[in-house]
Design goal:
The chain is of the alpha+beta class and about 200 residues long. It is built from 3 helices and 7 strands, in the order H-H-H-E-E-E-E-E-E-E. Strand 4 and strand 5 form a beta hairpin.
Amino acid sequence: MVSMLPPSSAKKRCLALVLAAGLAVAMVGCTDAPEPTPTVSTTTESPSPTPTESTPEPTPDPTAEPTDAPTPPDPAMLINEDTEEGAKSAAKYFVELQNYIVAARDVSAWDGRAAEDCVFCETTDEVVRQLLEEGWIPEGGGSEIKTIDEIARDKDVWFVYVTSHEREYLVRDHTGTVVQEASATETELVIGLRFNSHWELVDVG
């Protein structure tokens, strides 16, 4: 679960989309169409069609928002118990929450969920502020827990050791130019959590 702006990922994803779009166009050209039925010509001349002005294709807006708006994770996935199972559910929840915060550029989603001294949360907020200030648009990215490898506890803090898959992504500026991109990778993370009537994120390292 890394911030979007340090290298992490979407060149391959974008290339795949381009190739997929190109394949769709190619398939139209390769589709078997029925042979036209021969027609008998007549001596009657038909008037020539009046030329019409073609409507120009709309120019894509590089600053347009994605059509599929990101949605926050459902809090119902949390097990609100100060147990190992509760900590596991919280680790998964906060990975998805950070994905949402960066994609939607909505730092308010941390409210009541981030510890006051959560450095990781502050770093995420800084990334979102930079995206907004620069007018940058992220594509792809995000994290997914592949395995939960170990769970430990020190006083009131749970430490969930996970292997995370960081998806490939890219970032475009307001002109549509790619300003950053990175490939997919796997990372070992430690997610610190605390339960105090509800789960909160302590930090990620």
